[in-house]
Amino acid sequence: MVCEKDPLVQKVCELYEQISSLESLKPSKDVDMLFTQLVATCMPPSPIDVTKLCKTIQDIRSKLIQLCGQAEGLLESHFSTILGSYQNPLHYLNIFPYYSNYLKLSQLEFNILTKHCSNVPTKVAFVGSGPLPLTSIVLASFHLTTTSFHNYDVDPSANSKALQLVSSDPDLSQRMSFHTTDIMDVTNALNDYDVVFLAALVGMDKNAKVGVIDHLAKYMAPGAILMLRSAHGARAFLYPVVDPCDLRGFEVLSIFHPTDEVINSVVIARKFPTTKQYYVEYPLGPTKLPNKLLDAEMFNPLNHVNLMEELDVEEQFS
Fold it and tell me: Which N-terminal residues, if any, form the signal peptide (predicted)?
């Protein structure tokens, strides 16, 4: 069992102690330094399995994910405010320090989506879009240039800031809308979307995440695509992990674990054709994963994906 003796875990725990003692998680020299160290510690490919950590470390991991989520929200809000002060905010997106990561992640997600979705989606929902909805903006600007995007967030101020970013753009202002509501209160409208993206920080703990996924499985259109963000190895100290068994009502199509600076893993699933299958034939979620979780054709120069790591994942769930 991995516990305090593991050097990586020790380092993460040291950083957790420092981060949790900060007076504020708003962007500052100390906050930026500590989170940069944390990401650098967790980014390299690691065989660590967070489910095998002792309870003390499991508790620290849960708290650390919460702190990372809060810090990320404050960072996005900070830069969204700055961008919103420009006449054409979308011309200055590169001032956000992780903009290049979003370009790579969106390219990866678009490639995966194209592989499993023969038609260009007409309507896409992004759940947990936040004050700086870069995934929606990048996908709408460069990849899905005729698709309408419906962004959902519970925070009215986040939506207000996000709207400010696209309102001056004649194209995106027409194709992008923002809904201030809890996704658990959205029912029939979910049936309208060809693709639903679920942000990594929607459902910060296992039960909440599974609750959202179950809700989507109940109301999404049969055959619609669900794109989720997960984490793998030591990166699971930064973001919640979505396991294939969590996706009740969905067929898992592929799981991708980038090994570069793109932190999030990407999971793509398709809702089963009928609700009967969901409730009767698949009470515990899909039991069979595709033979190939990674297709070599999906490789893109932007994404340095480790093939051996993917094959290991395939064996783990087969």
Answer: none
